[in-house]
Automatic annotation (TrEMBL):
Gene Ontology terms for molecular function: nucleic acid binding; zinc ion binding
Residues covered by region (Disordered): 1-30
InterPro entries cross-referenced by the UniProt entry: Znf_CCHC_sf
Stated name of the protein: Tick transposon
Lineage: Eukaryota, Metazoa, Ecdysozoa, Arthropoda, Hexapoda
Length: 253
């Protein structure tokens, strides 16, 4: 399967929000008595995405693509090879056996030695959301150690503040869990509790010039608009007009 479609397999749960605006965290917590679908075999079978880099730190994409392809295919036909911006390439092996052969072999292209290692990017890791009001009282380090056998490698408690001018952060019952696998389990077993996971939707990039998403102000060529009322940038000073979102038209900034 294509590396570009990895996110399609992450979860059957609906996203937290389908709005063009960033998702908001609610305060709900839930428990489930169902036996979780761990899929531990998936954890091993998913380790098929590798990253290849030159040991001399130069760009691997500068080498002949025909030669690189022939060297990789000595280990059998792979699912896909993707060029990265940093000069490395991602290799998706057909199975874990092929991936292990690539990792354990000395790969050379001409005079260049190539290092092939398991990718630690989002192709081999994923994040999920869990919510439980009691988790804020539990020791985070103990949680991390206790969930290691389920593939958990990081736990982040989401905090919020009442307003952009406030410097006080409030702990919420929402946690972002990072797994060392491309898809999260449907449930996370914490002791005798079984807590369902939800799809993690990362906060989008927002431009603070035009207030739209997926680009930064430094590269924005759009007209500047007010972040409060969504009108073209007006006189300096605090805006006192009603809130309006330029993306969805809602009564918020």
């Amino acid at each position: 399967k294509s590396l570009k479609n990895k996110n399609d397999e992450r979860s059957t749960n609906p996203p937290l929000s389908t709005s063009p605006c960033p998702p908001s965290w609610d305060n709900g917590g839930s428990l489930s008595p169902k036996i979780p679908d761990w899929g531990f075999e998936v954890l091993q079978q998913s380790k098929r995405t590798l990253v290849a880099t030159r040991t001399d730190k130069k760009s691997l994409s500068h080498l002949s693509p025909f030669f690189v392809e022939k060297v990789i295919q000595q280990f059998g036909e792979v699912n896909e090879i993707v060029r990265c911006r940093n000069g490395s390439i991602l290799i998706e092996a057909k199975n874990t056996t092929q991936a292990e052969k690539l990792q354990n072999s000395k790969v050379t292209v001409g005079d260049c030695e190539i290092n092939v290692a398991l990718s630690t990017t989002a192709h081999n890791t994923c994040k999920a959301i869990i919510r439980d009001e009691d988790m804020v009282h539990w020791d985070q380090q103990e949680l991390l150690e206790g969930l290691a056998d389920q593939g958990v490698i990081a736990i982040h408690n989401v905090k919020s503040r009442p307003g952009s001018c406030s410097d006080k952060w409030t702990v919420t019952p929402t946690f972002i869990i990072t797994f060392n696998r491309p898809t999260p389990p449907r449930h996370l077993k914490i002791g005798w509790l079984s807590i369902p996971t939800k799809e993690y939707v990362p906060e989008p990039i927002r431009c603070f010039q035009c207030q739209r998403y997926n680009h930064f102000r430094a590269s924005c060529k759009n007209t500047a608009v007010c972040s409060r009322c969504a009108e073209p940038e007006h006189r300096p000073g605090p805006c006192k007009q009603d809130y309006k979102c330029i993306n969805c038209g809602g009564s918020h900034s």
